[in-house]
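Memo to structure team: turn this sequence into structure tokens by end of day. - J.P.
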Amino acid sequence: MSGITTHVLDTSRGKPAGGVPVVLEIRSDDGGWREIARSATDGDGRASLLASKSQVPRGVYRISFDTGAYFLAANVKAFFPEVRVVFEVRDLAPHQHVPLLLSPFGYSTYRGS
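Reply from structure team:
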């Protein structure tokens, strides 16, 4: 698989977080952000944001997770209404995976495989 993907797990429930709206952007030369993909996580908490048969281009990317919408739909009060993860692709790569571990009062992320 190539492209940029994510996987959101709700650690407070011990289950995938389905239905989380997700936006992928790339930083432009002027420092602004340009949206390149929009999706929502599926029932397994996964979303493919940049599906490509070629390698992911070098650049600085940002994934924004609308965690507020996810928790509102579950009727859960949460502290973080949005999570933004900025990462840099320095070498041409076939695949970038950015998982998010989520709870109402915290989150963590890492470079996945």
